[in-house]
Amino acid sequence: MSNPQQMDRPDLYVVARILERLWRENGPMVKTRLQVAARVNYDVFLKYLSWMVDKGLVSLENTPGGHEKVVITTKGMESYKRLVQWINEVIHAKTPGR
Questions:
Q1: Phi, psi of 38 (to 5 degrees)
Q2: Which of 8, 63, 65, 71 has the maximal Cβ count within 10 Å?
Q3: pLDDT per residue over 22-36, tens digit each?
Q4: Whose CA is closest to 34, among 8, 11, 55, 60?
Q5: Is 19 left (phi over 0), alpha (psi -120 to 50) or beta?
Q6: Average pLDDT over residues 5-14
Q7: Dist CA 38 CA 23 (whole Å)
Q8: Domain 12-91, second-level architecture
Q9: How far apart are CA 92 and CA 77, in angstroms?
């Protein structure tokens, strides 16, 4: 994705929703399906997608049918695990094993 939008403060819950859906899908997803699953409008989704590609959390691949699909990267999987752990510990005051 060219010309990624600058995002000073991305909503970590939106990032987590996108990464979680890709993680659960266990394979590439069409952008519009992922956008609906993330519960954000398409313009906002494209900003997040561009930011996430730029950060190496997801990548884009073209399919033989001409659709562009989103794939979670290894870095994205690790980031998702750490983000969920942080949200649980800091926001929800849950510690591992509780």
A1: -80, -10
A2: 71
A3: 999 988 999 999 999
A4: 60
A5: alpha
A6: 82
A7: 13
A8: Orthogonal Bundle (1.10)
A9: 21
DSSP sequence for the chain: --SPPP-SS--HHHHHHHHHHHHHHTS-EEHHHHHHHHTS-HHHHHHHHHHHHHTTSEEEEE-TTS-EEEEE-HHHHHHHHHHHHHIIIIIS---TT-
Q: Which amino acid is at 25?
A: E
**Residues 47/38, Cβ–Cβ less than 8 Å:** no
| Cβ contact 65:30 at 8 Å | no
Closest CA to 17 of 92, 44, 62, 54: 44
The percent of residues above 70 in pLDDT, for the chain, comes to 90
* Statement: residue 2 has pLDDT above 70: no
92 pLDDT band, cuts 50/70/90, is confident
The pLDDT value given to residue 3:
45
**Neighbouring C-beta atoms of residue 72, cutoff 10 Å:** 25
